[in-house]
Amino acid sequence: MSHVGDASTLPVTWWKSSASAAQSDCVECGIVDAETIAVRDSKNPHGPALLFTREQMTTFVTAAVSGRFGGLE
Q1: Which residues pair with 36 in a beta bridge?
Q2: Which of 2, 36, 63, 65 is most buried (CB neighbours < 10 A)?
Q3: Can you tell me the distance from the alpha carbon of 8 to that of 47, in angstroms, rounded to the nearest whole number?
Q4: Following DSSP, what letter does each residue of 2-69 receive, concatenated?
Q5: What residues does each domain of the chain span?
Q6: For strand 36-41 and strand 2-4, is the pairing parallel, antiparallel, or unpaired?
Q7: What kind and span of H or E run contains 62?
Q8: Which tens digit of pLDDT belongs to each residue from 29-62?
Q9: Which residues contact 18 (CB under 8 A, 6 or more apart)?
């Protein structure tokens, strides 16, 4: 995982979950290239973004869906 200091400089179209609230209290994702996915705080579009490989993102999503982060409700 790496990062960039200003997420707005990335050449991506950002999207957020359809389950996100209207107050922009969520994270947004963007596809940087064939192997890189960026994640940023929707409340801070000029703040940092984390950069994940597709494999890292798949591992995270699989763990979240399977409940491996239980107790975070």
Answers
A1: 33, 53
A2: 36
A3: 8
A4: EEES-GGGS----B--TTS-TT--SEEEEEEETTEEEEEETT-TTS-EEEEEHHHHHHHHHHHHTTTT
A5: 2-65
A6: unpaired
A7: helix 54-65
A8: 999 999 999 999 988 999 999 999 999 999 988 9
A9: none
